[in-house]
């Protein structure tokens, strides 16, 4: 075992340790920094080990990439974070595909059968990741309609694409150098097209799962590319990213009660929900109209409450309202009230998002409760304060069959005595399904920026 292999093992272990640290809000920032530092060291090791550290254009590329990445990370709003993750996934897959393409064009006659096969496979996975991620990011950013787009014979077309790609990969592995160039171009075009077909049939509500899956694809593309060029560092790091992405995909599928096959097939399509009785509050079960909520006063409800549960969501992240939420917690506890936080697994679009934001403002970790632990307590809760959450508290997930959200486990805030909702508006969330919770007579709507509404609410109960 040489120096390069030893360094590969060390860096892989450090990256894995960084991922482990990211499993806890208290150490997540350190884990992220450790992972970023390991990747930077990996780049330097590759440059110096291969004797290309003296090539000016490479350092220019590193500098340019670092500047672009820094500016994007500083400029991007929290609401755009999933889209940026999707974009970076695509760029990772595209980079692996480009490396494989260059290797094929320049060294195909000298390549062995295994390298030829993996190079073609890297093209497929890399280009599918690129085009699929661009579609996913476009849907999350609402630049592309979020509804699943299923063309006639979609499954047949997908199957034909995979079959043809399989044939082309085989042809590119056994053919001549001239034929390999033509095959590689065809593989590139067909893979890009398949990535689009793969992603457009997924609805907006399930798109975070697709982003996570494409994250694993980007790692897989890198690992396969590493096999092509015989680089153990690229293989190990790519495999780690791929495995982490698959694990995250599984977690999100369980949290949204979706099988991966259902997500990718667009099996649960959006429907026209206008006037749907399934979305209306049932009579005798906290049902009613928005008119009846006007008699309720949120500050009075909180002053009289003894048990309060706070439900943070993506809107809290967007408005950076965690600081105001911490102040609300302090005021409520100073008044002798029992306060807990209910955390949905996919609140914020990625597992752990809410935990990290609340840890940032020193909300005690023992105040945070996962969905399974907190759901039985809602029926005994005086007031639930929902802050920037929609889909994860939408009762339509229980009643509205045939909608993208149906069957998804939710936080049962609808069972509480009173609910105060601090959301920007009453528009549907990513699922596109209206939330009937807003129309219940025991619900107070405080519309507007969550940071402002929570701050005002806190002042009024002091």
Task: Please summarize what this structure is.
This protein has 462 residues and is an alpha/beta fold. 58% of the residues lie in helices and 6% in strands.
Descriptive notes:
The protein is of the alpha/beta class and about 450 residues long. The chain folds into two domains: about 75-265, no CATH class; about 275-460, Rossmann fold, CATH 3.40.50.1220. About 60% of the residues lie in helices and about 5% in strands. It has 17 helices and six strands. It has helices at about 5-20, 30-50, 55-75, 80-105, 115-140, 155-175, 175-200, 205-230, 230-255, 260-265, 300-305, 315-320, 320-335, 355-360, 370-375, 395-400, 450-460, and strands spanning about 305-310, 340-345, 370, 385, 420, 445. Strands 3-2-1-4-5-6 form a six-stranded parallel sheet. The N and C termini lie far apart (about 65 Å). Keywords: Membrane, NAD, NADP, Oxidoreductase, Translocase, Transmembrane, Transmembrane helix. This is proton-translocating NAD(P)(+) transhydrogenase. It is found in: Membrane.
- Dominant shape: elongated
Mean pLDDT: 87
Count every beta strand, where a strand is a DSSP E run of 2 or more residues. Answer: 6
Number of structural units classed as domains:
2
Strand and helix layout:
Blueprint: H1 3-21, H2 28-49, H3 56-75, H4 81-107, H5 113-140, H6 154-174, H7 177-200, H8 207-229, H9 232-255, H10 260-265, H11 298-304, E1 307-312, H12 314-319, H13 322-334, E2 338-343, H14 353-360, E3 368-370, H15 371-374, E4 383-387, H16 396-399, E5 418-422, E6 443-445, H17 450-461
Parallel strand pairs: 1-2, 1-4, 2-3, 4-5, 5-6
Helix pairs in contact: 1-2, 1-9, 4-5, 4-8, 5-6, 5-7, 5-8, 6-7, 8-9, 11-17, 13-17
């Amino acid at each position: 075992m040489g120096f390069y292999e030893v360094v590969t093992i060390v860096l892989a272990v450090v990256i894995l340790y960084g991922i482990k640290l990211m499993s806890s809000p208290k150490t997540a920032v350190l884990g992220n920094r450790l992972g970023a530092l390991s990747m930077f060291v990996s780049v330097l090791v590759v440059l110096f080990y291969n004797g290309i550290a003296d090539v000016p254009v490479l350092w220019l590329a590193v500098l340019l990439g670092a500047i672009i990445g820094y500016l994007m990370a500083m400029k991007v709003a929290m609401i755009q974070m999933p889209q940026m993750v999707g974009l970076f996934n695509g760029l990772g897959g595209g980079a692996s595909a480009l490396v494989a393409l260059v290797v094929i064009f320049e060294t195909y006659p000298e390549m062995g059968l295994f390298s030829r096969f993996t190079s073609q496979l890297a093209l497929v996975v890399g280009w599918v990741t690129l085009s699929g991620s661009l579609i996913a990011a476009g849907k999350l950013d609402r630049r592309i309609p979020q509804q699943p787009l299923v063309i006639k014979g979609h499954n047949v077309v997908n199957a034909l694409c995979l079959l043809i790609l399989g044939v082309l990969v085989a042809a590119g592995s056994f053919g001549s150098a001239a034929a390999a160039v033509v095959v590689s171009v065809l593989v590139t075009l067909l893979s890009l097209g398949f990535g689009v077909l793969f992603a457009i049939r997924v609805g907006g509500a399930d798109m975070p799962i697709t982003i996570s899956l494409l994250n694993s694809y980007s790692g897989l593309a890198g690992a396969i590319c590493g096999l092509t060029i015989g680089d153990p560092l690229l293989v190990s790091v790519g495999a780690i990213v791929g495995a982490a992405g698959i694990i995250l995909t599984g977690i999100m599928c369980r949290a949204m009660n979706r099988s991966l096959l259902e997500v990718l097939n667009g099996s649960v399509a959006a429907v026209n929900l206008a006037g749907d009785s399934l979305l209306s509050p049932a009579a005798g079960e906290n049902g009613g109209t928005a008119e009846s909520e006007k008699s309720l006063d949120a500050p009075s409800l909180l002053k009289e409450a003894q048990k309060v549960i706070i439900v943070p969501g993506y809107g809290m992240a967007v408005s950076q309202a965690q600081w105001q939420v911490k102040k609300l917690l302090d005021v409520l506890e100073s008044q002798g009230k029992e306060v807990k936080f209910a955390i949905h697994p996919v609140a914020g679009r990625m597992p752990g998002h809410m935990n990290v934001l609340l840890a940032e403002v020193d909300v005690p970790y023992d105040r945070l409760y996962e969905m399974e632990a907190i759901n039985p307590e809602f029926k005994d809760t005086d007031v639930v304060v929902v802050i920037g959450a929609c889909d994860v508290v939408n009762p339509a997930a229980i009643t509205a069959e045939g909608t993208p959200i149906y069957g998804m486990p939710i936080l049962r805030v609808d069972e509480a005595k009173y609910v105060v909702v601090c959301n920007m508006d009453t528009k549907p969330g990513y699922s596109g399904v209206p939330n009937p919770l807003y129309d219940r007579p025991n619900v107070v709507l405080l519309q507007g920026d969550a940071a402002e509404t929570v701050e005002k609410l806190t002042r009024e109960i002091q």
